[in-house]
Amino acid sequence: MAKSLFDHIKAVTQFQDPNYWDKLEDGDKKTWSNYMVQRFLSMNPDWITTIADLQPYTERLSPKQYYLALINIIPKGRYYLKYVKGKKVNKYEEFLVDIIKQDFQVSKLQAEEYCEILYATREGRENIKYICEKYGVDKKQITKLKLKI
Q1: Taking the domains of the chain in order of start, what are their residue ranges?
Q2: Which end is more exposed in the chain, N or C (fewer Cβ atoms within 10 Å of the end residue's Cβ)?
Q3: What is the distance between the terminal CA atoms of the chain, rounded to a whole angstrom?
Q4: What is the pLDDT of residues 78-126, one digit of tens each?
Q5: Whole-number CA gyration radius for the chain
Q6: Distance separating alpha carbons of residues 72 and 16, to the nearest angstrom
């Protein structure tokens, strides 16, 4: 079975064998990604500045060269690297985006852009209120939109 990204991370942090890359089969070498290894290692708050400082120098290294550089920089040990994902934030109420999408007959992405434009001016916010009322949206729902008219 081919090695996973996590096997490679463990090789960098826990084992640090200088001959690791030479022992890998071709299929295992294909599962290595300098970018993903770097991304996971940067989840350790103690390493983040070091990884960031090295990034301009290491981005052109071959995977083998990058591995060898990392094992000489990262302290040997077992580490828990919790991956932190960015949170997707819906800036506008879903029902509003759907109504704008329907009213202007545009895509969801375009409807979100329309919301951005409409919210920018008083007239635009009044237009949002009008569109919501036109589609029979409850007054409490309209109040949630914080239109500040």
Answers
A1: 5-73, 94-144
A2: N
A3: 62
A4: 999 988 777 767 889 999 999 999 999 999 999 999 999 999 999 999 9
A5: 25
A6: 8
